[in-house]
Amino acid sequence: MSFAFCNGLVLSGVHLFDNPKNHIHTLSCNGAVFSHLTITAPKDAPNTDGINIAESTGVQIYNCTIGTDDCISVLNHTSNVNISYITCGPGHGISIGSLGKDGSVGIVEQIHVSHSKFTGTMNGVRIKTWQGGSGYVRGISFRDIILDQVQTAIDI
After folding, report:
1. Cis omega before residue 90 (within 30°)?
2. Would you indicate the residue range of the signal peptide (predicted)?
3. Which of 1, 42, 84, 90 gets the most CB atoms within 10 Å of its CB?
């Protein structure tokens, strides 16, 4: 599912499974809300991210169960995102990035992850960057997260 140039999108109570690629992708959305979603993919399926947020602001993601490549990926030029009460795993956890690919400028700010549980993931939360890129990641918080059988808790 892809959503572009939207305002006030609400997606709730949906079950998505086994997509061959990313399950939900937003581009340039303002004030989107994703809640009460269940998203799953086979443990070894690559590029099956649960929710990708790109070039968006004011996004809320809460009360979701996600077991995909990256449970949630916050991409370039995204700000003011609140992620809470997520059950994540298996997969790679919640990622900010990848940022700075091919020398590009990566900017992500005010991303808050709280009250979430990661089980059997490669990472809990991480910030992914490419060598040679520029930009910044700031105003990021990870609070009240539970990590169970996670290989790397926080990867920066």
Report:
1. yes
2. none
3. 90
Assess contact for 35 and 72: CB atoms under 8 A.
no
Place of tokens 């990661």: 118
d(CA 110, CA 65): 23
Q: What is the pLDDT of residue 44?
A: 80
How many residues make up the chain in this entry?
A: 156
> Do 39 and 24 meet the contact criterion of CB atoms below 8 Å apart?
yes
d(CA 31, CA 7): 6
What residue spans define the domains of the chain? 2-155
Annotated catalytic sites, by residue?
69, 92
Instruction: Name the CATH topology of 2-155.
Output: Pectate Lyase C-like (2.160.20)
What is this structure's pTM? 0.96
Q: Taking residues 32-54, report their average pLDDT.
A: 94
